[in-house]
């Protein structure tokens, strides 16, 4: 698969051959769904907590005598059936993460890249090098290039000036190649990858 390479100023910078094993697959929604679900579950805080019967602050004295009242038998007022009593089998802090094989996660990333390529939402940029960290300049450039909600993936390290310039632009996310993931790729309208990013992804996923 061949794609044109552009510069940040919109000019052409030749073309690049993309690996079919990364960008030429037929995207499968079931694979993408499983990987995204794994990512979101791992990111979930799991700090939900309630007070159980042994946690609420009440006296443990029997609230009234066992027999002769005509009412039901009760002991502590901490019981879940009473107002302000403990919660029965409520949520406790735990991890929501579940296992997903490393090979399957890599396959999901390949399918995400292929999905963007097939939809025509993949853009290859020569380099992200900027002389100065100017947010206004980058915002104007993104508008001229038609970038609306984009994820930009660079090589092992991202140009520092570019990161600073993109920091205050809500519609631009920037990641190094090792940070590339299925959820962030799919949630943005366009995927922009540098030539260094392509090389790094090919080395990572082969």
From TrEMBL:
Coiled coil: none annotated. The keyword Glycoprotein does not apply. It comes from the Bacteria. GO terms for biological process: translation. GO terms for molecular function: rRNA binding; structural constituent of ribosome. GO terms for cellular component: ribonucleoprotein complex; ribosome. It holds the Pfam family Ribosomal_L4. The keyword Ribosomal protein applies. Keywords: Ribonucleoprotein, Ribosomal protein, RNA-binding, rRNA-binding. Part of the 50S ribosomal subunit. Belongs to the universal ribosomal protein uL4 family. One of the primary rRNA binding proteins, this protein initially binds near the 5'-end of the 23S rRNA. It is important during the early stages of 50S assembly. It makes multiple contacts with different domains of the 23S rRNA in the assembled 50S subunit and ribosome. This is Large ribosomal subunit protein uL4. It comes from Gemmobacter lutimaris.
């Amino acid at each position: 698969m061949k794609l044109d390479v552009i510069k940040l100023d919109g000019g052409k910078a030749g073309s690049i051959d993309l690996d079919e094993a990364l960008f030429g697959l037929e995207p499968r929604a079931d694979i993408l769904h499983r990987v995204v679900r794994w990512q979101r579950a791992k990111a979930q805080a799991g700090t939900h907590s309630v007070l159980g019967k042994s946690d609420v602050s009440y006296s443990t004295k029997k609230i009234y005598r066992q027999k002769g009242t005509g009412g039901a038998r009760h002991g502590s007022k901490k019981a879940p059936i009473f107002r302000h009593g403990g919660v029965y089998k409520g949520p406790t802090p735990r991890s929501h993460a579940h296992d997903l094989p490393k090979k399957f996660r890599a396959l999901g990333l390949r399918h995400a890249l292929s999905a963007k390529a097939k939809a025509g939402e993949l853009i290859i940029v020569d380099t992200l090098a900027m002389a100065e960290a100017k947010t206004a300049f980058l915002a104007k450039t993104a508008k001229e290039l038609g970038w609306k909600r984009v994820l930009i993936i660079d090589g092992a390290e991202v140009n520092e000036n570019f990161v600073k310039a993109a920091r205050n632009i809500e519609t631009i996310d920037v990641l190094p190649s090792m940070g590339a993931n299925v959820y962030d790729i799919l949630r943005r309208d366009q995927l922009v990858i540098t030539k260094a990013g392509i090389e790094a992804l090919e080395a990572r996923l082969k």
